[in-house]
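Protocol step 4 of 5: obtain the predicted structure for the target chain.
Materials: sequence only (see below). No template structures provided, no constraints applied. The aim of this step is simply to have a reference model before the mutagenesis design in step 5. Sequence pasted as it appears in the construct record:
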Amino acid sequence: YCFYNQIYKADYLGMSKKTALISRLGIRGIEFLRGSARHAFEKSTHFTPPSSIYETVKNAKTIVNIGNQTGEGWFLTGEMIELIHSGVNNIVCTQPFACLPNHVVGKGVIKELRKHYPLSNIVAIDYDPGASEVNQLNRIKLMLSTAQKNLHKKEEDAS
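Step 4 output (structure tokens):
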């Protein structure tokens, strides 16, 4: 994520091309280190290999601008889309400790994600010291209830 941000800054915001080159090498190095795990995930029937940062960027671009680099910026959106594409429609987006950028991005993109992916069931849960545990649990229960309704609807459509 941080490496790709430098590439974006070089391409669109006038940062050094040398920084972009170093960042591309950094991404390549990380992908190399992830290679054996990715290979094992590909062979497994229980796990899905993670997508590359470039795939995450491609996904995120459909909802937010990659120039949005505060907090988790575009990365959170890209990961949620990756989950949806892999069949995970029910997502709990936890937002800890008054992280304003995460609140803005996490909650801000949910409506747009639902518009693009109607079966997506995404709930944002705040985990702040003053947050009500009852409220957190109720939001999760509501999300699970919606997940069950969607599952029954999907089963009815299939038959």
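Step 4 remarks: The chain has six helices and two strands. The chain has a mean pLDDT of 89.
Proceed to step 5.
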